[in-house]
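Narrative progress, year one. The postdoctoral researcher (J.K.) led the effort to move from monomer predictions toward full complexes, under supervision of the PI. The following entry was the first complex the group processed end to end, covering 687 residues in total.
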Amino acid sequence: MTPHITPVMLGQVIVSGLLAGALYAMVALGLGLIFGVMRVLNVAHGPLLMLGAYITYFLFITVGLNPYLSLLVSMPIVFVIGVALQHFLVRRVVDAPELSSLLLTFGISIALVNVAQLAFTSDLRSVEFITGAFLVGPFAFSKARVIACLFAAAITALAFLFLQKTRLGKAIRAVSQSREVAQVCGIDVHRIHMLAFGMASALAAAGGSLMTVMIAIQPEMGAVYTFKSFLVIVLGGAGNYPGALLGGLLLGLVEQLASLFLTTQVNEAVAYVLLVLVLLLRPTGLLGGRST
Amino acid sequence: MTMSSWKSITAAAVVAAVTAVALPAAAQAPVKIGASISMTGTYAKPGIYQKEGYELCVQEANDKGGLLGRKIDLVVYDDQSTPATGQRLYEKLITEDKVDVVMGPYSSAISEAVANVTEKYKKVMVAPLAATTSIFKKGRKYIFMVISPAEVYLEGLVDIAAKRGLKTIAIVNEDTLFPKTAANGTAEFAKKRGLQIVLQEAYPKGNTDFSALLTKIKAANPDVIAASTYFDDAVALTRQMKELNVTPKMYGVTVGGDLPEFYDLLKQNAEYIYGATQWEPTLPYPGQKEFMASYQKKFNHEPSYHAAAGYAGCVLYLDAVKKAGTLDADKVREQLLKLETRTMLGDYKVDADGFQTAHKMVLFQWQDGKKVTVWPDDLAAGGKARFPTPPWNQR
């Protein structure tokens, strides 16, 4: 049934995969950041992405703000929400057994989705801003997806620069390497936790904002990105930040190539099979996880 | 005659007298109709329309003197769009609330789950929004179908394509019960009409990136694309078709394409797209105008087909009870099996399993922002399909 696969088709699909992968990488970096810094798996990551999407949507509908400019609003707002979540809720379970934090963030996730359903209804919304494609020879690339990919790459690069070059970024990495030693060196761990949670939330929100132009949004849109991000950070190595980048691109590629060579139906299954293989052969992820 | 036998005769007479007085009093107690409907969760929107359809039907019946001389009370709970909750609620409606009658919930999935309960207690259930054939082909006796089954959704698309001499078709569907059934039905029609299926593929629920799938479709270059969708995937698929410049001569979707939001979201990109619908307000069915007017008056908005089906299902049920002259499930069932009629929703007639055989799906095409009925011919009333579909930049 599958038509003969030509090099053009393969090229088209590889690029589509990388475009999607860049977005996965950015969103997953957020999840990885929280996990790396405090060993909390934030199930509410996807719903925070959804909040970012709605902020962009409403800014576009009400004041006609360019969806890409609205990143400057959605990221700070969700950053503050993230900081508040950390300060008031997540802080209490950082040192508790991992199941406690899982339950707590699961609860936050349910609350966010239901509040969104009440506030925004379950109606699908979308922003008609950029449609159509860039045509390059025989290839067609969705404008919205190319632009989203560029923004995602830029934001991810900035996040890495921040982690590598700034004092605060170094403090974050120090805390994720060893909280005790960081504390001894005079780093305010609670503040770093809040910063990391805020930054992670902002990365998720950026993903949501960029998606608003690509797909129709609704309150339950986030869950699937929680799972994908989880997959990405395990693939790349939990707590290894460049690993998230590699994992994201890999997931995007695998999904698209599985759709091309097998069927779209199994693309998620293939991604999870890959996960199992990585866990069997290299349990710390492709780039190696954080040592414990 | 002994004293004691006199006594017992007197007692019997008293009992008879009391019963004679009590019976009309009991007859005054309202008929309780129970249902669970999705008022929150993913099915909330169509579910609430359906509930409004029930409410209008009950109100109109009460205005005309109720059912068998009794007032009707409607008891509705929220099943939160989950089959398990629906099942529990029907159990509660029947055993605790002791409703006389039940009506169906929203969606095939929940109808399938609650049918187990209603069958167990031998309650007739008209299920106005269950469109999956298998629900009715499991030997159940008391469940009745109102709308057309999933299999025939895109019959019109295939029919027009075949008449226009098109040769190839690609069929895609979300990998869940209803879209899968609809896709397989479409494939059957296509084979029967001599169209070659160049690609048939499912995608997982919640899929948002159709690049690879559409790349394959583009390579197969079909004349027709039939997509068995819900709403969000219909929108995503259409957008990406434009992005990847996939231009079949005909493109039709099953569900979602009929909503006004479909056009709102896609604007001119929705032009020329075919969609299937169970019902439209403009169709020339009896009682249509009256239904539209009273619905608009009661709820201040236009009904969707879910509302129309809920209303029609309830009307059909009350009709059968009146004909049977009783609420007795077996007698009402006989009437529903015999009934052959046309409501504002279209034709009704079921086979021995309660499976709908008369109701017709309608195919429309988006033309200048309006849904124009293009199939079947006897309902199209002058509507003509714009064919073939031009390239994306000329829509």
